[in-house]
């Protein structure tokens, strides 16, 4: 109860007249007494969070929002992801380095986070942009809330922002550089200048996410989640170049019977070939493939000497190593619902994708075959060069998160290595 010292009250009497049910011509009279605080009493604190963050885009638009996770000021490229689930896998995907990920699914955080769903040892993205932050969690594997998880990893997040409007702007104008800030001391003009002075094109982001020394990977897909068993198959040694590799790519290879050695992005091709592997995997990774010419040279030195499988960034590096070119897409492909046609079989796969660059199929030399096409925009989604035992996909066959339509690509890689072994 408020005390006299805290506030004074204004009492107001209101007389209401209602007809009695038994006799409509007579009235029932009663009095309401209302007590309200006057302005001199002061207002109570709002029971909800107020806007304390800004997202300033290079086009000059300013988006007010509420913050969660870490505080401060961060610059990055804004991209939208259309996945309905799997935000923790997205947070820990190294391919998002240097980017703010905007989730088009309106409510995020309702399942919390857990250690089993992480795709790498840390979060590499610049920040997370969502419409609604769930106020509670409901999942039997949940160990922590999303907000606490991001705060511990120094990742900024904002919510209560119009993600639909921002997505439409990105689809119309293309990916935009933005600055996310919770610092009131920074003026809008200063943040806008920061966004226009920074560029993600031409930056080597791979070196910042790759491992530093080689290691052996032995973990397979958990039997509870393993949908494609490969018991009793022969073992193949695969050297996996870590350009930002996801754990579930390695788990799927191990589940298909591979012995895996993971090496850094700068690992010499000569060292790889000296291991006499059955195959080499060039992994996914962030940024511009043209910004890592050393990786392209490594790919060139390996092609034709051992079976090769490229995924996402690995696919783009293969395209360049084969003599083709890559280009930056308008807003890229980010999500778990992209239809892709396998031109060899005619089958359509629903795929998980995360990339801002693509291979120009017109620039590829004779003998290189386009095997998959994205049905949303016709872009190249897969390559093969049978004469040199090369295959690649622009999307993620491990699909974490996403559907498992493309998992058989790992089986195709196994079969290619088996054919080479038998023919040797």
From TrEMBL:
EC number: 6.3.5.5
Domain Carbamoyl-phosphate synthase small subunit N-terminal residues, every copy: 51-181
Molecular function GO terms recorded: ATP binding; carbamoyl-phosphate synthase (glutamine-hydrolyzing) activity
Pathway named in the protein's UniProt entry: Pyrimidine metabolism; UMP biosynthesis via de novo pathway; (S)-dihydroorotate from bicarbonate: step 1/3; Amino-acid biosynthesis; L-arginine biosynthesis; carbamoyl phosphate from bicarbonate: step 1/1
Database matches in CDD domains: GATase1_CPSase
Catalytic activity: L-glutamine + H2O = L-glutamate + NH4(+)
Gene Ontology CC: one annotated term: carbamoyl-phosphate synthase complex
Biological process terms in GO annotation: 'de novo' pyrimidine nucleobase biosynthetic process; glutamine metabolic process; L-arginine biosynthetic process; pyrimidine nucleotide biosynthetic process
Keywords: Amino-acid biosynthesis, Arginine biosynthesis, ATP-binding, Glutamine amidotransferase, Ligase, Nucleotide-binding, Pyrimidine biosynthesis
EC category name: ligase
Domain of life (superkingdom): Eukaryota
Database matches in InterPro entries: CarbamoylP_synth_ssu, CarbamoylP_synth_ssu_N, CarbP_synth_ssu_N_sf, Class_I_gatase-like, CPSase_GATase1, GATASE
tRNA processing is among the record's keywords: no
Pfam families for this protein: CPSase_sm_chain (PF00988), GATase (PF00117)
UniProt similarity note: Belongs to the CarA family.
UniProt cross-references to PANTHER family, sorted A to Z: CARBAMOYL-PHOSPHATE SYNTHASE ARGININE-SPECIFIC SMALL CHAIN, CARBAMOYLTRANSFERASE FAMILY MEMBER
Function in brief: Small subunit of the arginine-specific carbamoyl phosphate synthase (CPSase). CPSase catalyzes the formation of carbamoyl phosphate from the ammonia moiety of glutamine, carbonate, and phosphate donated by ATP, the first step of the arginine biosynthetic pathway. The small subunit (glutamine amidotransferase) binds and cleaves glutamine to supply the large subunit with the substrate ammonia.
Subunit structure: Heterodimer composed of 2 chains; the small (or glutamine) chain promotes the hydrolysis of glutamine to ammonia, which is used by the large (or ammonia) chain to synthesize carbamoyl phosphate.
Protein name, as recorded: Carbamoyl phosphate synthase small chain, chloroplastic
């Amino acid at each position: 109860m408020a005390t006299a010292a805290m506030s004074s009250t204004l009492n107001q009497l209101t007389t209401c007249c209602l007809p009695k049910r038994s006799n409509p011509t007579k009235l029932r009279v009663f009095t309401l007494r209302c007590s309200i605080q006057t302005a001199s009493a002061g207002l109570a604190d709002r029971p909800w969070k107020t806007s304390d963050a800004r997202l300033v885009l290079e086009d000059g638009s300013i988006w007010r929002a509420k913050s969660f996770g870490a505080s401060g000021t961060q610059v990055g490229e804004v991209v939208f992801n259309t996945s309905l689930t799997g935000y923790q896998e997205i947070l820990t995907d190294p391919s998002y380095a240097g980017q703010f990920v905007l989730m088009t699914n309106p409510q995020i955080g309702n399942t919390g986070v857990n250690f089993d769903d992480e795709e790498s040892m840390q979060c590499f993205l610049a920040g997370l942009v969502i419409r609604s932050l769930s106020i509670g969690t409901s999942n039997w594997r949940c160990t922590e809330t999303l907000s606490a998880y991001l705060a511990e990893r120094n990742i900024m997040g904002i919510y209560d922002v119009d993600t639909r409007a921002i997505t439409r702007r990105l689809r119309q104008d293309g990916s935009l550089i933005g600055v996310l800030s919770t610092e009131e001391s920074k003026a809008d003009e200063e943040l806008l200048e920061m966004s226009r002075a920074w560029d993600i094109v031409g930056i080597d982001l791979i070196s910042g996410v790759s491992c530093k020394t080689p290691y052996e990977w032995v973990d397979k897909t958990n039997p509870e989640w393993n949908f494609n068993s490969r018991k009793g198959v022969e073992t193949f040694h695969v050297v996996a170049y870590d350009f930002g590799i996801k754990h579930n790519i390695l788990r799927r290879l191990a589940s298909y019977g591979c012995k895996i050695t993971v090496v850094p992005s700068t690992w010499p091709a000569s060292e790889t070939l000296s291991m006499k592997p059955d195959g080499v995997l060039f992994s996914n990774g962030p940024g511009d493939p043209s910004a890592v010419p050393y990786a392209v040279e490594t790919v060139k030195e390996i092609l034709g000497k051992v079976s090769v499988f490229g995924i996402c960034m690995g696919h783009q590096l293969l395209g360049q190593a084969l003599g083709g070119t890559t280009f930056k897409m308008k807003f890229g492909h980010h999500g778990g619902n992209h239809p892709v046609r396998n031109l060899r079989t005619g089958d359509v796969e629903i795929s998980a994708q995360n990339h801002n660059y693509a291979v120009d199929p017109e620039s590829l030399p004779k003998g290189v075959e386009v095997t998959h096409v994205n049905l949303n925009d016709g872009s190249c989604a897969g390559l093969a060069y049978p004469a040199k035992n090369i295959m690649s996909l622009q999307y993620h066959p491990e699909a974490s998160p996403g559907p498992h339509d493309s998992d058989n690509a790992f089986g195709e890689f196994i079969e290619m290595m088996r054919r080479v072994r038998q023919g040797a």
